[in-house]
Amino acid sequence: MLNAPTTASGRPFVKMHGLGNDFVILDARMGPLPATFDAARVAAIADRHTGVGCDQLVVIEPARNATADAWMTIYNADGSRVAACGNATRCVARLLMAENGRDWVVIETEAGLLDAEARADGLVAVDMGAARLDWREVPVARAMDTLHLDLTAGPLADPVGVSMGNPHAVFFVEDAAAIDLAAWGPGLERDPLFPERANIEVAQILGDGRIRMRVWERGTGITRACGTGACATLVAAARRGLAGRSAELVLDGGSLHIEWMADDHVMMTGPAVLSFSGRLDRELLP
């Protein structure tokens, strides 16, 4: 069980993924994490050669708001902390729903309260909250229209800025597969335009309500899927008049259904899959 007490064999964890975007999930509701739990410790657990391996490490903690079931803290593979992660939210929601026997939960995060519910075929839907579109909310370093950010790098230009609790820059391209994200992602993530760094998406309009998207995630690199990135991309496409307010986002790891609803909240629906569970060696986490 995820909330089993820590023993001499190490602290329990669960490995899950959403479309290949994978997570190590720790449960700190039964007791706090050690004082040595810092960025270096997170990076050691996330290392795919000497640790468990993951794109993000997620910690479930007691809720701070009486209406929530639990608090979720998210760390990138480099140990940096982030406010939101759509795929991780679906995974944690699945765990909490299994635990409490309900088909809905409320998860508290630095980005706010997120409502999640079970759908057919094992899918989980999450209300990711309202898209934030003002330049101060993304944020970018100076006043500008976020529909056309002043940013160019090689073949990439004229992105749309969106915050889904974390910053995104969405570039629309003719062929998403042809963009060398490994070459352009690191510099764009850390461009001076983004005081909090940014997630970088390249998106190709396929038609028939489908958008192909690839992502460079800040603090992690190329991942097979990004839930908040899919939400930001749908919002960006709708703002540009390239798509309607509902679409299938085709990611490297599979598809998510994204809807930008009339109240400006963004609903994300997709899978949450359990890979395995285990215990961390005490050298990784005392």
What does this structure look like?
- With 286 residues, the chain is of the alpha+beta class.
- It has two domains: 11-129 and 271-280, Roll (Diaminopimelate Epimerase, Chain A, domain 1); 132-263, Diaminopimelate Epimerase, Chain A, domain 1, CATH 3.10.310.10.
- It is 16% helix and 40% strand.
- The strands form two sheets. It has a 17-stranded mixed sheet that branches.
- Strand 17 and strand 18 form a beta hairpin.
- The longest helix is centred in the N-terminal third of the chain and has 15 residues, at 86-100.
- The mean pLDDT is 95.
List the helices and strands and how they pair.
Layout: E1 11-18, E2 21-27, H1 39-46, E3 56-61, E4 70-76, E5 81-82, H2 86-100, E6 104-109, E7 112-118, E8 123-130, E9 152-153, E10 156-157, E11 160-163, E12 167-172, H3 181-189, E13 199-207, E14 210-217, E15 221-223, H4 227-240, E16 246-251, E17 254-260, E18 265-271, E19 273-280
Parallel strand pairs: 2-3, 4-6, 12-13, 14-16
Antiparallel strand pairs: 1-2, 1-19, 3-4, 4-5, 6-7, 7-8, 8-18, 9-10, 11-12, 13-14, 14-15, 16-17, 17-18
